[in-house]
UniProtKB/TrEMBL annotation, chain A:
The protein's name in its UniProt record: Thioredoxin domain-containing protein
Annotated PROSITE patterns: THIOREDOXIN_2 (PS51352)
Signal peptide positions (record): 1-20
Keyword Signal (UniProt): yes
One Pfam family hit: AhpC-TSA
Ranges for domain Thioredoxin: 27-181
Keywords noted in UniProt: Signal
Originating species: Nibribacter koreensis
Length: 208, 177
């Protein structure tokens, strides 16, 4: 027993380190995303596997309160309206902790979805598990998933919707659309990840 | 008659002097009441700090007036500026507000909070083109803070809201401050 103690400690440490690394990094492009089950603003639980006809998804971590997330609401609606009929609906997920950000409660999400007439699902990631698993750090933060032949969800793009948050008219690169067009044309996505300014996700106090 | 003209001249002169003084005074006070200056900079100007060879510890905080946790932690950075007065420590508050919001939001914020640290507005809206150049570990979320001393080859980046205790911990353990 005494001999195995250091080994146990080492194993424990290893497990701790690897789990920390996993949470830190989240998904990389090429990884397979696992499905989730979250409550939509219509009160129904929703999973990716429910949408059998989808070719993939534009999973977007967003919220009610971040000005940068709000700047993209109309653009997300347009993206959904253009690409949902082609098989890539937007799935919006709000990961903010309600204690840290009271404006992101489920009731407020329902209000926002109604006011803006969101044509897409707006899901509540109450435990923040999904955001952590994806490795989302900010709102807005997009993940384009592509359904493979065997039904897996492969991460094809991570990042921003386009290259100008402040002014849609000054956008010169539509990252998400370009990636989706490549996927729809069975081509390789040229730019698989981008970075952009956003609001840090409001994590629960104990999770920090 | 002569005296009267003289008086009139004097009166006119003193009136002019009064007017002059009034203008001068008004001008003088307006200098004192001037709104704080927040230079709008581009990336190369920020990189001058990032590449500064001096033995100065730069604490570069990336923030925006619309970012609640950023606004909450700004007093902690202001306190550092005071705590390390006279020492080679420099706090830079780099705002990522839109340049169009400079007069409407950023300057009034700096004025209201009476910020003493250097405040700059980085006008580079094509974020993906420079975020990695600032620090590859940065995802783009605000707030974020870079601690840097090039002479000592020390660099530490953190992407989360900071408390005074955390700031002190980083500065003492990583920069011996």
């Amino acid at each position: 027993m005494q001999k195995s103690l250091p080994l146990l400690c080492l194993l424990g440490l290893f497990a701790l380190l690897t789990s920390a690394v996993l949470v830190e990094n989240g998904y990389q492009v090429g990884d397979v995303a696992t499905d989730f089950k979250l409550k939509n603003v219509d009160g129904q639980m929703m999973s990716l596997k429910d949408q059998k006809n989808a070719k993939g998804f534009v999973v977007t971590f967003t919220c009610n309160t971040c000005p940068f997330a709000k700047l993209y609401e109309d653009r997300l609606i347009q993206l959904h309206q253009k690409y949902a009929p082609l098989g890539y609906p937007v799935i919006a997920i709000n990961p903010n902790d309600v204690k840290a950000s009271p404006g992101d409660s489920f009731a407020k999400m329902q209000e926002r979805a109604k006011d803006k007439k969101f044509p897409f699902a707006y899901l509540y990631d109450e435990t923040q598990e999904v955001a952590k698993r994806f490795g989302a750090t900010r709102t807005p933060h997009l993940y384009i998933l592509q359904k493979t032949a065997n039904g897996q969800m492969k991460v094809a793009y991570i990042g921003a919707l386009d290259n100008n948050s402040g002014d849609p008219e000054k956008v010169t690169q539509r990252y998400a659309e370009t990636a989706l067009n490549s996927l729809l044309a069975n081509q390789v996505v040229a730019q698989t990840s981008t970075k952009a300014i956003g609001c840090t996700i409001k994590w629960r106090a104990e999770a920090q | 008659m002569v005296i009267k003209t003289y008086q009139k001249k004097m009166l006119r002169k003193s009136l002019l002097l009064c007017l002059f003084l009034a203008f001068w005074f008004a001008g003088g006070t307006s200098v004192f009441a001037q709104s704080p200056s927040v230079p709008v900079i581009k990336l190369p100007q920020l990189q001058k700090y990032l590449q500064s060879p001096s033995d100065t510890t730069y604490i570069i905080n990336l923030w925006a007036t619309w970012c609640k946790p950023c606004v909450e932690e700004i007093p902690h950075f202001e306190a550092l500026q005071k705590q390390y007065a006279g020492k080679p420590v420099k706090v830079l508050l780099v705002s990522l507000d839109f340049a169009k919001d400079l007069d409407k939001k950023v300057i009034p914020f700096v004025q209201k909070r009476q910020l003493k640290s250097t405040v700059l507005l980085l006008d580079e809206p094509d974020y993906n083109s420079w975020i990695d150049a600032f620090d590859p570990a940065w995802s783009g979320a605000l707030p974020a803070t870079l601690f840097l001393n090039n002479a000592k080859q020390q660099r530490f980046f953190v992407e989360k809201p900071l408390t005074p205790a955390l700031l002190q911990e980083y500065l003492s353990t990583k920069f011996s401050l």
